[in-house]
Amino acid sequence: MRRIPPPVPLPRWPLSRAEIDESHAQFRGAWRLFALGLPGGEVVERADVFITAGHVAWSLMNMAFLPKPAETQADLERAVDSAARYYAQGPHGWAFTLTPDWLSPALRPQADAVLASRGLKPGMFMTGMVADRLLAPVRPPPTLDLRPVRDEWGHNAMADVNAACYDMPQASGREALAAPGIYGPECRAFVGCHDGVAGTTTAALRVDGVIYIALVATLAQHRRQGTAEAVLRHAHTEAKKAWGLERTVLHATPAGAPIYRRMGYRDVTGFVSYFAPPKGA
């Protein structure tokens, strides 16, 4: 999977414990929906770790999280070791995602070494963001054919665009993201098309009374044209109509964060995903 460079050093924002906890719970809750939407997926809640396993080749969909803040190195080791034992039963790579703000100050400098000693390396850096409401757009939206995801074409389009943006094989993308179960009543997903061809995607998920924005992806040839913002806004509007919600959370890559800030999202905390390779790699 394509490695995404880290953002500038953290923290860069005023910290709110409640919003840090919310950002973590939203991440975990969204991946719970993904796992439960996959044919072989499952969610395992243990005292020491929270596992959302898609059991697919794309390691990003085989995730583990802390169930609560870790105070000591032993707390973090127990969580990682428990997840490692679980995923050792299968052939796929997996990821452990955490926010440094859920580690005690004494533990934070040791986190990379603890994960590395278990074969996990940092591979994705994200900013947890929140908006109570979206700001008005600063420019007119581009002309797009916005299609709801309701059938096999839509499922495949969501998978193919995201796979291309993360340098994943199409087959792996479809295994992970084309399952109809992902796009059930807790999801409002849309594809932005250019001349009938899928170019941009967004999914809005209902997670604990909040609109969680996921699977925002735009093919290279359609970037810097406002297409991602247009599809995201449409997905948020449709989710708001369907569920009566407005507050929204997402986790942004360094490339996406500036777009979301212009839309009214603000930074809450940073996240790092550490990846373990598949067996035999």
From TrEMBL:
<feature type="domain" description="N-acetyltransferase">
    <location>
        <begin position="144"/>
        <end position="281"/>
    </location>
</feature>
<dbReference type="InterPro" id="IPR016181">
    <property type="entry name" value="Acyl_CoA_acyltransferase"/>
</dbReference>
<dbReference type="Pfam" id="PF13508">
    <property type="entry name" value="Acetyltransf_7"/>
</dbReference>
<dbReference type="GO" id="GO:0016747">
    <property type="term" value="F:acyltransferase activity, transferring groups other than amino-acyl groups"/>
</dbReference>
<dbReference type="InterPro" id="IPR000182">
    <property type="entry name" value="GNAT_dom"/>
</dbReference>
<protein>
    <submittedName>
        <fullName>GNAT family N-acetyltransferase</fullName>
    </submittedName>
</protein>
<keyword id="KW-0808">Transferase</keyword>
